Amino acid sequence: MSEELQSCHEDLSTVNHQLGKKVDELESANDDLTCWMTSTDIATLLLATNHTIQRFTPPATRLFNLTPSDVGRPIDDISAHINDSALPGDIDEVLRTLMSCDRELHNDEGRCYLRRITLYRTADNCVGGVVVMYIEISALKRAEDDLRIMTSRLEDRVSERTTLLEAQRDFMKLVQDSIVEAILTVNEHGVVLSINRAGMRMFGYAANDVIGRKVNMLMPEPYRSEHDAYITRYLQGGKPHVIGVGREIQGLRNDGSTFPVWLNVSEIVRDGLRLFVGTLHDLTEQRRIEYAARERQEELTLLHRVYTAGEFAAVMAHELSQPLTAISGYSEAGLQHLRRGQVEPDGLIDKFEKITLQTQRAGQVIRELHKFLTRDAQQREPVELNALIRSVIELLTPQALARNVRIKFMPSAAPITIMALEVQIEHVLVNLVQNAIEAIQAAGKAAGTITIRTSADPGDMVHVTVQDDGPGFTGDAARRLFERFYTTKPKGLGMGLAICRSIIEAYDGQIRAEQPMEGGTVFHFTLPHQA
Q1: Are 130 and 95 in contact (CB under 8 A)?
Q2: Residues 406, 437: Cα–Cα separation, whole Å
Q3: Same domain, 162 and 238
Q4: Rounded mean pLDDT of the chain?
Q5: Rounded CA gap, 60 and 41, in Å?
Protein backbone atom coordinates (compact mmCIF):
# COMPACT_ATOMS: atom_id res chain seq x y z
CA MET A 1 0.00 0.00 0.00
CA SER A 2 2.79 2.37 0.83
CA GLU A 3 4.47 1.54 -2.45
CA GLU A 4 1.34 2.45 -4.34
CA LEU A 5 1.07 5.75 -2.49
CA GLN A 6 4.69 6.38 -3.21
CA SER A 7 4.10 5.77 -6.93
CA CYS A 8 1.03 8.03 -6.98
CA HIS A 9 2.98 10.70 -5.20
CA GLU A 10 5.75 10.54 -7.81
CA ASP A 11 3.21 10.71 -10.65
CA LEU A 12 1.51 13.65 -8.98
CA SER A 13 4.85 15.41 -8.64
CA THR A 14 5.55 14.85 -12.32
CA VAL A 15 2.15 16.16 -13.35
CA ASN A 16 2.53 19.08 -11.01
CA HIS A 17 5.93 19.85 -12.51
CA GLN A 18 4.53 19.69 -16.06
CA LEU A 19 1.59 21.83 -15.03
CA GLY A 20 3.92 24.39 -13.56
CA LYS A 21 5.94 24.39 -16.72
CA LYS A 22 2.77 24.94 -18.78
CA VAL A 23 1.68 27.73 -16.47
CA ASP A 24 5.06 29.37 -16.91
CA GLU A 25 4.78 29.05 -20.69
CA LEU A 26 1.25 30.43 -20.56
CA GLU A 27 2.33 33.34 -18.44
CA SER A 28 5.23 34.03 -20.80
CA ALA A 29 2.90 33.95 -23.82
CA ASN A 30 0.43 36.11 -21.96
CA ASP A 31 3.21 38.53 -21.12
CA ASP A 32 4.25 38.65 -24.79
CA LEU A 33 0.67 39.21 -25.86
CA THR A 34 0.21 41.88 -23.24
CA CYS A 35 3.47 43.54 -24.26
CA TRP A 36 2.44 43.57 -27.91
CA MET A 37 -1.04 44.87 -27.19
CA THR A 38 0.26 47.66 -24.99
CA SER A 39 2.99 48.68 -27.45
CA THR A 40 1.06 48.61 -30.72
CA ASP A 41 -0.39 51.80 -32.15
CA ILE A 42 -3.24 49.94 -33.83
CA ALA A 43 -6.62 49.96 -32.09
CA THR A 44 -7.33 46.25 -31.66
CA LEU A 45 -10.17 44.34 -30.00
CA LEU A 46 -10.19 40.61 -29.20
CA LEU A 47 -13.82 39.48 -29.06
CA ALA A 48 -15.33 36.12 -28.22
CA THR A 49 -17.83 34.48 -30.52
CA ASN A 50 -20.60 36.10 -28.45
CA HIS A 51 -19.14 39.58 -29.09
CA THR A 52 -17.80 39.92 -25.53
CA ILE A 53 -14.55 41.80 -25.04
CA GLN A 54 -11.58 39.61 -24.18
CA ARG A 55 -8.74 42.08 -24.63
CA PHE A 56 -8.14 45.50 -26.22
CA THR A 57 -5.14 47.68 -26.97
CA PRO A 58 -4.76 51.17 -25.47
CA PRO A 59 -5.34 52.92 -28.84
CA ALA A 60 -8.79 51.27 -28.88
CA THR A 61 -9.85 53.64 -26.09
CA ARG A 62 -9.63 56.53 -28.58
CA LEU A 63 -12.44 54.96 -30.56
CA PHE A 64 -14.47 53.25 -27.81
CA ASN A 65 -15.23 54.29 -24.26
CA LEU A 66 -13.39 51.34 -22.76
CA THR A 67 -12.02 50.69 -19.33
CA PRO A 68 -10.34 47.53 -17.93
CA SER A 69 -13.61 46.66 -16.22
CA ASP A 70 -15.32 46.35 -19.62
CA VAL A 71 -13.58 43.05 -20.30
CA GLY A 72 -16.31 40.43 -20.55
CA ARG A 73 -18.97 42.91 -21.66
CA PRO A 74 -20.44 42.76 -25.22
CA ILE A 75 -18.86 45.29 -27.59
CA ASP A 76 -22.39 46.18 -28.68
CA ASP A 77 -22.98 47.81 -25.26
CA ILE A 78 -19.93 50.10 -25.52
CA SER A 79 -20.41 53.61 -26.87
CA ALA A 80 -18.00 54.59 -29.64
CA HIS A 81 -16.46 57.69 -31.23
CA ILE A 82 -16.58 56.06 -34.65
CA ASN A 83 -19.57 55.35 -36.82
CA ASP A 84 -19.44 51.55 -37.00
CA SER A 85 -23.04 50.42 -36.84
CA ALA A 86 -22.22 47.53 -39.17
CA LEU A 87 -19.76 45.98 -36.70
CA PRO A 88 -22.12 43.35 -35.12
CA GLY A 89 -23.33 42.14 -38.50
CA ASP A 90 -19.82 41.98 -39.94
CA ILE A 91 -18.61 39.96 -36.89
CA ASP A 92 -21.40 37.43 -37.40
CA GLU A 93 -20.60 37.29 -41.15
CA VAL A 94 -16.92 36.55 -40.46
CA LEU A 95 -17.84 33.84 -37.93
CA ARG A 96 -20.25 32.34 -40.45
CA THR A 97 -18.08 32.47 -43.60
CA LEU A 98 -14.68 32.22 -41.86
CA MET A 99 -13.54 35.01 -44.26
CA SER A 100 -12.04 38.31 -43.16
CA CYS A 101 -13.94 41.55 -43.71
CA ASP A 102 -12.64 45.07 -44.48
CA ARG A 103 -14.55 48.35 -44.30
CA GLU A 104 -13.57 52.03 -44.41
CA LEU A 105 -14.94 54.18 -41.54
CA HIS A 106 -14.64 57.70 -40.14
CA ASN A 107 -14.49 58.78 -36.49
CA ASP A 108 -16.03 61.86 -34.96
CA GLU A 109 -12.96 63.93 -35.88
CA GLY A 110 -13.19 62.96 -39.52
CA ARG A 111 -10.22 60.62 -39.43
CA CYS A 112 -10.36 57.69 -41.81
CA TYR A 113 -9.82 54.11 -40.63
CA LEU A 114 -9.63 50.73 -42.30
CA ARG A 115 -11.55 48.31 -40.04
CA ARG A 116 -10.47 44.71 -40.54
CA ILE A 117 -12.14 41.69 -38.88
CA THR A 118 -10.30 38.35 -38.91
CA LEU A 119 -10.77 35.05 -37.04
CA TYR A 120 -8.52 33.94 -34.24
CA ARG A 121 -8.21 30.27 -33.45
CA THR A 122 -7.27 28.35 -30.34
CA ALA A 123 -4.34 25.96 -30.02
CA ASP A 124 -6.56 23.07 -31.09
CA ASN A 125 -7.60 25.06 -34.24
CA CYS A 126 -11.04 25.92 -32.96
CA VAL A 127 -12.60 29.33 -33.61
CA GLY A 128 -12.13 31.29 -30.46
CA GLY A 129 -13.52 34.59 -31.68
CA VAL A 130 -12.45 37.51 -33.87
CA VAL A 131 -9.77 40.17 -33.95
CA VAL A 132 -11.04 43.64 -34.83
CA MET A 133 -8.36 46.14 -35.92
CA TYR A 134 -8.82 49.81 -36.76
CA ILE A 135 -5.89 51.03 -38.89
CA GLU A 136 -5.79 54.76 -39.48
CA ILE A 137 -5.37 55.52 -43.19
CA SER A 138 -6.09 59.27 -43.09
CA ALA A 139 -2.68 60.18 -44.54
CA LEU A 140 -3.02 57.55 -47.20
CA LYS A 141 -6.50 58.76 -48.10
CA ARG A 142 -5.28 62.34 -48.26
CA ALA A 143 -2.46 61.24 -50.52
CA GLU A 144 -4.94 59.31 -52.65
CA ASP A 145 -7.24 62.32 -52.79
CA ASP A 146 -4.35 64.61 -53.66
CA LEU A 147 -3.19 62.17 -56.31
CA ARG A 148 -6.73 61.88 -57.63
CA ILE A 149 -7.06 65.67 -57.78
CA MET A 150 -3.68 66.02 -59.47
CA THR A 151 -4.56 63.26 -61.89
CA SER A 152 -7.88 64.91 -62.65
CA ARG A 153 -6.20 68.27 -63.19
CA LEU A 154 -3.54 66.68 -65.36
CA GLU A 155 -6.20 64.87 -67.38
CA ASP A 156 -8.06 68.16 -67.77
CA ARG A 157 -4.88 69.89 -68.94
CA VAL A 158 -4.06 67.02 -71.27
CA SER A 159 -7.60 67.11 -72.59
CA GLU A 160 -7.44 70.88 -73.09
CA ARG A 161 -4.02 70.59 -74.73
CA THR A 162 -5.21 67.73 -76.90
CA THR A 163 -8.27 69.71 -77.93
CA LEU A 164 -6.07 72.71 -78.72
CA LEU A 165 -3.61 70.60 -80.70
CA GLU A 166 -6.45 68.94 -82.59
CA ALA A 167 -7.92 72.35 -83.34
CA GLN A 168 -4.52 73.60 -84.50
CA ARG A 169 -4.02 70.45 -86.55
CA ASP A 170 -7.48 70.81 -88.12
CA PHE A 171 -6.77 74.48 -88.81
CA MET A 172 -3.39 73.70 -90.38
CA LYS A 173 -4.96 70.94 -92.44
CA LEU A 174 -7.68 73.35 -93.55
CA VAL A 175 -5.03 75.93 -94.47
CA GLN A 176 -2.94 73.33 -96.31
CA ASP A 177 -5.96 72.01 -98.18
CA SER A 178 -6.90 75.55 -99.24
CA ILE A 179 -3.44 76.21 -100.74
CA VAL A 180 -3.12 75.57 -104.47
CA GLU A 181 0.47 74.35 -104.12
CA ALA A 182 1.19 70.77 -103.12
CA ILE A 183 2.64 70.40 -99.60
CA LEU A 184 4.36 67.20 -98.48
CA THR A 185 5.97 66.40 -95.13
CA VAL A 186 8.80 63.86 -95.27
CA ASN A 187 10.92 62.38 -92.46
CA GLU A 188 14.68 61.92 -92.55
CA HIS A 189 14.25 58.50 -94.15
CA GLY A 190 12.39 59.97 -97.12
CA VAL A 191 9.00 58.58 -96.00
CA VAL A 192 5.92 60.74 -96.64
CA LEU A 193 4.09 61.71 -93.44
CA SER A 194 1.40 63.97 -94.91
CA ILE A 195 0.14 65.35 -98.22
CA ASN A 196 -2.52 68.00 -98.80
CA ARG A 197 -5.40 67.92 -101.27
CA ALA A 198 -3.52 69.96 -103.88
CA GLY A 199 -0.75 67.35 -103.77
CA MET A 200 -3.24 64.53 -104.24
CA ARG A 201 -4.77 66.34 -107.23
CA MET A 202 -1.34 67.18 -108.66
CA PHE A 203 0.01 63.62 -108.56
CA GLY A 204 -3.27 61.71 -108.94
CA TYR A 205 -2.98 59.69 -105.70
CA ALA A 206 -5.15 59.29 -102.62
CA ALA A 207 -3.49 60.15 -99.29
CA ASN A 208 -3.34 56.51 -98.18
CA ASP A 209 -1.49 55.60 -101.40
CA VAL A 210 1.35 58.02 -100.56
CA ILE A 211 1.60 58.31 -96.76
CA GLY A 212 4.05 55.77 -95.36
CA ARG A 213 5.85 55.27 -98.68
CA LYS A 214 9.08 56.77 -100.05
CA VAL A 215 8.63 60.23 -101.58
CA ASN A 216 10.70 59.25 -104.61
CA MET A 217 7.65 57.37 -105.90
CA LEU A 218 6.54 60.82 -107.10
CA MET A 219 9.75 61.35 -109.12
CA PRO A 220 10.85 60.04 -112.53
CA GLU A 221 14.38 58.93 -113.20
CA PRO A 222 17.08 60.08 -112.55
CA TYR A 223 15.57 61.97 -109.59
CA ARG A 224 14.13 58.77 -108.09
CA SER A 225 17.48 56.95 -107.90
CA GLU A 226 19.37 60.03 -106.67
CA HIS A 227 16.97 61.09 -103.90
CA ASP A 228 18.11 58.75 -101.10
CA ALA A 229 21.74 59.70 -101.74
CA TYR A 230 20.81 63.40 -101.49
CA ILE A 231 19.22 62.91 -98.07
CA THR A 232 22.10 60.75 -96.83
CA ARG A 233 24.70 63.34 -97.84
CA TYR A 234 22.72 66.10 -96.20
CA LEU A 235 22.21 64.23 -92.92
CA GLN A 236 25.92 63.42 -92.82
CA GLY A 237 26.74 67.12 -92.88
CA GLY A 238 27.15 67.57 -96.60
CA LYS A 239 26.30 70.73 -98.47
CA PRO A 240 22.52 71.33 -98.56
CA HIS A 241 21.51 70.83 -102.17
CA VAL A 242 17.86 71.88 -101.90
CA ILE A 243 17.21 73.24 -98.40
CA GLY A 244 15.94 76.80 -98.68
CA VAL A 245 16.78 76.96 -102.41
CA GLY A 246 14.06 76.68 -105.04
CA ARG A 247 14.71 74.62 -108.13
CA GLU A 248 12.85 73.05 -111.02
CA ILE A 249 12.48 69.26 -111.15
CA GLN A 250 10.22 66.75 -112.87
CA GLY A 251 7.21 65.18 -111.16
CA LEU A 252 5.68 61.76 -111.91
CA ARG A 253 1.91 61.37 -111.89
CA ASN A 254 0.00 58.20 -111.08
CA ASP A 255 -0.69 57.65 -114.79
CA GLY A 256 3.05 57.66 -115.55
CA SER A 257 3.18 61.11 -117.16
CA THR A 258 5.82 63.64 -116.15
CA PHE A 259 5.46 67.37 -115.65
CA PRO A 260 7.67 70.32 -114.59
CA VAL A 261 7.54 71.29 -110.91
CA TRP A 262 9.08 74.17 -108.95
CA LEU A 263 10.24 72.76 -105.58
CA ASN A 264 11.06 74.55 -102.33
CA VAL A 265 12.20 72.52 -99.30
CA SER A 266 12.46 73.66 -95.68
CA GLU A 267 13.69 71.72 -92.66
CA ILE A 268 12.15 71.45 -89.18
CA VAL A 269 14.22 70.14 -86.25
CA ARG A 270 12.47 69.76 -82.89
CA ASP A 271 13.23 67.44 -79.94
CA GLY A 272 15.66 65.46 -82.08
CA LEU A 273 13.06 64.92 -84.83
CA ARG A 274 13.99 66.12 -88.32
CA LEU A 275 11.30 66.75 -90.89
CA PHE A 276 11.42 68.17 -94.41
CA VAL A 277 8.49 70.15 -95.79
CA GLY A 278 8.32 70.42 -99.57
CA THR A 279 6.16 72.97 -101.41
CA LEU A 280 5.59 72.15 -105.09
CA HIS A 281 4.12 74.34 -107.81
CA ASP A 282 2.99 72.77 -111.09
CA LEU A 283 4.65 74.66 -113.97
CA THR A 284 2.71 72.90 -116.74
CA GLU A 285 0.29 75.75 -117.34
CA GLN A 286 3.03 78.35 -117.04
CA ARG A 287 5.16 76.48 -119.58
CA ARG A 288 2.16 76.15 -121.88
CA ILE A 289 1.57 79.89 -121.71
CA GLU A 290 5.25 80.61 -122.24
CA TYR A 291 5.35 78.22 -125.17
CA ALA A 292 2.22 79.78 -126.70
CA ALA A 293 3.70 83.26 -126.20
CA ARG A 294 6.99 82.13 -127.75
CA GLU A 295 5.20 80.61 -130.72
CA ARG A 296 3.16 83.80 -131.10
CA GLN A 297 6.32 85.86 -130.89
CA GLU A 298 7.97 83.68 -133.50
CA GLU A 299 4.95 84.11 -135.76
CA LEU A 300 5.11 87.87 -135.33
CA THR A 301 8.84 87.84 -135.92
CA LEU A 302 8.40 85.79 -139.07
CA LEU A 303 5.63 88.09 -140.24
CA HIS A 304 7.85 91.09 -139.54
CA ARG A 305 10.63 89.49 -141.52
CA VAL A 306 8.26 88.86 -144.43
CA TYR A 307 7.09 92.48 -144.36
CA THR A 308 10.67 93.69 -144.02
CA ALA A 309 11.77 91.47 -146.91
CA GLY A 310 8.92 92.89 -148.99
CA GLU A 311 9.96 96.44 -148.17
CA PHE A 312 13.59 95.65 -148.98
CA ALA A 313 12.50 94.04 -152.25
CA ALA A 314 10.51 97.17 -153.10
CA VAL A 315 13.47 99.37 -152.25
CA MET A 316 15.81 97.19 -154.30
CA ALA A 317 13.40 97.18 -157.25
CA HIS A 318 13.10 100.95 -157.06
CA GLU A 319 16.83 101.54 -156.70
CA LEU A 320 17.76 99.08 -159.45
CA SER A 321 15.01 100.06 -161.90
CA GLN A 322 16.77 103.24 -163.04
CA PRO A 323 20.26 101.79 -163.61
CA LEU A 324 18.79 98.69 -165.25
CA THR A 325 16.54 100.81 -167.48
CA ALA A 326 19.48 102.99 -168.43
CA ILE A 327 21.66 99.96 -169.14
CA SER A 328 18.90 98.51 -171.29
CA GLY A 329 18.52 101.82 -173.19
CA TYR A 330 22.21 102.30 -173.79
CA SER A 331 22.59 98.69 -174.92
CA GLU A 332 19.65 98.98 -177.35
CA ALA A 333 21.06 102.22 -178.80
CA GLY A 334 24.46 100.68 -179.32
CA LEU A 335 22.90 97.64 -181.03
CA GLN A 336 20.91 99.86 -183.40
CA HIS A 337 24.07 101.72 -184.43
CA LEU A 338 25.78 98.43 -185.09
CA ARG A 339 22.82 97.08 -187.12
CA ARG A 340 22.80 100.21 -189.28
CA GLY A 341 26.52 99.95 -189.79
CA GLN A 342 27.07 103.28 -188.13
CA VAL A 343 30.20 102.25 -186.31
CA GLU A 344 31.44 105.38 -184.60
CA PRO A 345 34.00 104.52 -181.94
CA ASP A 346 33.37 107.65 -179.95
CA GLY A 347 29.64 106.96 -179.83
CA LEU A 348 30.07 103.31 -178.83
CA ILE A 349 32.64 104.18 -176.19
CA ASP A 350 30.23 106.69 -174.69
CA LYS A 351 27.45 104.10 -174.60
CA PHE A 352 29.70 101.46 -172.96
CA GLU A 353 30.95 103.97 -170.39
CA LYS A 354 27.39 104.84 -169.46
CA ILE A 355 26.50 101.12 -169.24
CA THR A 356 29.52 100.53 -166.99
CA LEU A 357 28.55 103.46 -164.78
CA GLN A 358 24.98 102.23 -164.34
CA THR A 359 26.24 98.68 -163.69
CA GLN A 360 28.49 100.02 -160.96
CA ARG A 361 25.56 101.98 -159.55
CA ALA A 362 23.42 98.82 -159.40
CA GLY A 363 26.24 96.92 -157.74
CA GLN A 364 26.61 99.67 -155.16
CA VAL A 365 22.89 99.49 -154.38
CA ILE A 366 23.19 95.73 -153.81
CA ARG A 367 26.31 96.13 -151.65
CA GLU A 368 24.70 98.82 -149.52
CA LEU A 369 21.62 96.68 -149.04
CA HIS A 370 23.74 93.61 -148.17
CA LYS A 371 25.78 95.71 -145.78
CA PHE A 372 22.61 96.93 -144.11
CA LEU A 373 21.25 93.40 -143.78
CA THR A 374 24.46 91.77 -142.50
CA ARG A 375 26.11 94.42 -140.35
CA ASP A 376 26.28 93.74 -136.55
CA ALA A 377 23.80 95.89 -134.68
CA GLN A 378 25.24 94.92 -131.28
CA GLN A 379 28.65 94.32 -129.75
CA ARG A 380 29.50 90.70 -129.02
CA GLU A 381 29.74 89.87 -125.33
CA PRO A 382 30.96 86.90 -123.22
CA VAL A 383 28.29 84.17 -123.08
CA GLU A 384 28.40 81.06 -120.82
CA LEU A 385 27.38 78.39 -123.33
CA ASN A 386 26.13 75.73 -120.86
CA ALA A 387 23.88 78.28 -119.12
CA LEU A 388 22.52 79.41 -122.50
CA ILE A 389 21.72 75.79 -123.45
CA ARG A 390 19.93 75.24 -120.13
CA SER A 391 17.74 78.28 -120.77
CA VAL A 392 16.91 76.96 -124.26
CA ILE A 393 16.02 73.55 -122.78
CA GLU A 394 13.81 75.23 -120.19
CA LEU A 395 12.11 77.18 -122.97
CA LEU A 396 11.46 74.14 -125.15
CA THR A 397 10.67 71.56 -122.44
CA PRO A 398 6.88 72.21 -122.48
CA GLN A 399 6.83 71.77 -126.28
CA ALA A 400 8.88 68.57 -125.94
CA LEU A 401 6.76 67.15 -123.11
CA ALA A 402 3.60 67.85 -125.10
CA ARG A 403 5.01 65.47 -127.73
CA ASN A 404 6.40 63.01 -125.12
CA VAL A 405 9.99 63.91 -126.01
CA ARG A 406 12.67 64.08 -123.31
CA ILE A 407 15.59 66.53 -123.59
CA LYS A 408 18.84 65.40 -121.94
CA PHE A 409 21.81 67.71 -121.41
CA MET A 410 25.35 66.44 -120.89
CA PRO A 411 27.45 69.57 -120.31
CA SER A 412 31.20 69.83 -120.19
CA ALA A 413 32.88 69.43 -116.80
CA ALA A 414 34.02 73.07 -116.81
CA PRO A 415 32.09 76.20 -117.88
CA ILE A 416 32.52 77.28 -121.52
CA THR A 417 32.63 80.97 -122.46
CA ILE A 418 32.27 82.31 -126.02
CA MET A 419 32.16 85.82 -127.46
CA ALA A 420 28.84 86.10 -129.26
CA LEU A 421 25.45 87.70 -129.54
CA GLU A 422 23.37 85.48 -127.24
CA VAL A 423 20.27 85.76 -129.44
CA GLN A 424 22.11 84.38 -132.48
CA ILE A 425 23.46 81.26 -130.74
CA GLU A 426 20.06 80.81 -129.09
CA HIS A 427 18.47 80.94 -132.55
CA VAL A 428 20.74 78.12 -133.77
CA LEU A 429 20.00 75.92 -130.74
CA VAL A 430 16.24 76.55 -130.83
CA ASN A 431 16.13 75.75 -134.54
CA LEU A 432 18.05 72.46 -134.15
CA VAL A 433 16.04 71.28 -131.11
CA GLN A 434 12.68 72.21 -132.69
CA ASN A 435 13.64 70.37 -135.87
CA ALA A 436 14.48 67.30 -133.75
CA ILE A 437 11.15 67.47 -131.88
CA GLU A 438 9.21 67.78 -135.15
CA ALA A 439 11.19 64.93 -136.74
CA ILE A 440 10.41 62.58 -133.82
CA GLN A 441 6.74 63.54 -133.99
CA ALA A 442 6.58 63.16 -137.77
CA ALA A 443 7.99 59.63 -137.44
CA GLY A 444 4.95 58.65 -135.35
CA LYS A 445 7.05 57.53 -132.38
CA ALA A 446 5.32 57.22 -128.99
CA ALA A 447 8.31 58.81 -127.25
CA GLY A 448 11.72 60.13 -128.12
CA THR A 449 14.92 61.57 -126.70
CA ILE A 450 17.07 64.54 -127.67
CA THR A 451 20.60 64.68 -126.25
CA ILE A 452 22.73 67.85 -126.20
CA ARG A 453 26.45 67.66 -125.42
CA THR A 454 29.15 70.31 -125.05
CA SER A 455 32.92 70.05 -124.88
CA ALA A 456 36.03 72.14 -125.53
CA ASP A 457 39.19 70.80 -127.17
CA PRO A 458 42.78 71.98 -126.67
CA GLY A 459 42.57 73.85 -129.99
CA ASP A 460 40.33 76.50 -128.42
CA MET A 461 37.26 75.30 -130.29
CA VAL A 462 33.92 74.58 -128.63
CA HIS A 463 31.95 71.54 -129.82
CA VAL A 464 28.16 71.26 -129.53
CA THR A 465 26.12 68.25 -130.69
CA VAL A 466 22.33 67.91 -130.87
CA GLN A 467 21.32 64.27 -131.36
CA ASP A 468 17.81 62.81 -131.71
CA ASP A 469 16.45 59.30 -132.15
CA GLY A 470 14.09 60.31 -134.95
CA PRO A 471 13.85 58.82 -138.46
CA GLY A 472 17.06 60.40 -139.79
CA PHE A 473 17.29 61.68 -143.40
CA THR A 474 17.64 60.32 -146.92
CA GLY A 475 20.67 60.67 -149.14
CA ASP A 476 19.24 63.61 -151.11
CA ALA A 477 18.32 65.45 -147.92
CA ALA A 478 21.81 64.89 -146.51
CA ARG A 479 23.25 66.71 -149.49
CA ARG A 480 20.82 69.63 -149.49
CA LEU A 481 20.07 70.17 -145.79
CA PHE A 482 21.76 73.59 -145.62
CA GLU A 483 20.53 74.90 -148.99
CA ARG A 484 18.29 77.95 -148.99
CA PHE A 485 14.61 77.26 -149.69
CA TYR A 486 15.11 73.49 -149.42
CA THR A 487 12.72 71.88 -146.92
CA THR A 488 11.06 68.53 -146.21
CA LYS A 489 8.27 70.17 -144.19
CA PRO A 490 4.91 70.85 -145.84
CA LYS A 491 4.85 74.43 -144.53
CA GLY A 492 8.58 75.05 -144.20
CA LEU A 493 10.40 77.94 -145.84
CA GLY A 494 13.70 76.10 -146.17
CA MET A 495 15.68 78.91 -144.51
CA GLY A 496 16.21 77.63 -140.94
CA LEU A 497 19.34 75.53 -141.43
CA ALA A 498 20.69 77.94 -144.03
CA ILE A 499 20.46 80.77 -141.49
CA CYS A 500 22.07 78.54 -138.84
CA ARG A 501 25.00 77.91 -141.18
CA SER A 502 25.34 81.63 -141.92
CA ILE A 503 25.42 82.45 -138.20
CA ILE A 504 27.96 79.73 -137.32
CA GLU A 505 30.22 80.59 -140.24
CA ALA A 506 30.06 84.28 -139.27
CA TYR A 507 31.81 83.19 -136.04
CA ASP A 508 34.45 81.25 -138.05
CA GLY A 509 32.79 78.00 -137.01
CA GLN A 510 31.42 75.03 -138.94
CA ILE A 511 28.16 73.08 -138.85
CA ARG A 512 27.40 69.65 -140.29
CA ALA A 513 24.83 66.84 -140.03
CA GLU A 514 25.52 63.12 -139.55
CA GLN A 515 23.43 59.97 -139.47
CA PRO A 516 24.81 57.56 -136.80
CA MET A 517 24.67 53.78 -137.07
CA GLU A 518 21.97 53.52 -134.39
CA GLY A 519 19.68 55.85 -136.35
CA GLY A 520 18.45 59.36 -135.82
CA THR A 521 20.31 62.56 -136.67
CA VAL A 522 23.29 64.36 -135.15
CA PHE A 523 23.99 68.04 -135.81
CA HIS A 524 27.47 69.17 -134.84
CA PHE A 525 28.77 72.74 -134.81
CA THR A 526 31.89 74.46 -133.54
CA LEU A 527 32.60 77.94 -132.19
CA PRO A 528 35.78 79.70 -131.04
CA HIS A 529 36.42 79.32 -127.30
CA GLN A 530 36.90 82.52 -125.31
CA ALA A 531 39.38 81.70 -122.51
Answers
A1: yes
A2: 9
A3: no
A4: 77
A5: 9
Of 399, 407, 416, 529, the C-alpha closest to 467 is: 407
Per-residue model confidence (pLDDT) at position 239: 47
Last residue of a domain, one of 353, 374, 395: 374
pLDDT at 505: 86
In angstroms, the CA 195 to CA 13 distance is 103
Does 160 share its domain with 191? no
| Position 250 pLDDT exceeds 70 | yes
- Count of other CB atoms within 10 angstroms of residue 330: 19
For 177, the enclosing helix (H) or strand (E) is: helix 138-178
Domain boundary among 282, 301, 324: 282
Give the domain range for residue 291.
Answer: 287-374
Q: What is the pTM of this model?
A: 0.36
Intra-chain end-to-end CA distance of the chain, in Å: 152
- The 8-class DSSP code of residue 214 comes to B
DSSP state for residue 469 in the 8-state scheme: -
Residue range 399-437, pLDDT digits in tens: 788 788 899 999 988 888 888 877 778 878 888 888 888
Same domain, 321 and 430: no
Closest CA to 30 of 41, 18, 19, 22: 22
**Could you give the maximum distance between any two Cα atoms of the chain, in Å?**
216
Would you give the DSSP letter of residue 496?
H
Number of Cβ atoms within 10 Å of the Cβ of 510:
13
pLDDT for 300 equals: 58
The CATH number of the domain holding residue 273 is 3.30.450.20
Is the predicted pLDDT of residue 44 greater than 70, yes or no? yes
338 with 251, same domain: the answer is no
Among residues 185, 209, 171, 179, the alpha carbon closest in space to that of 197 is found at: 179
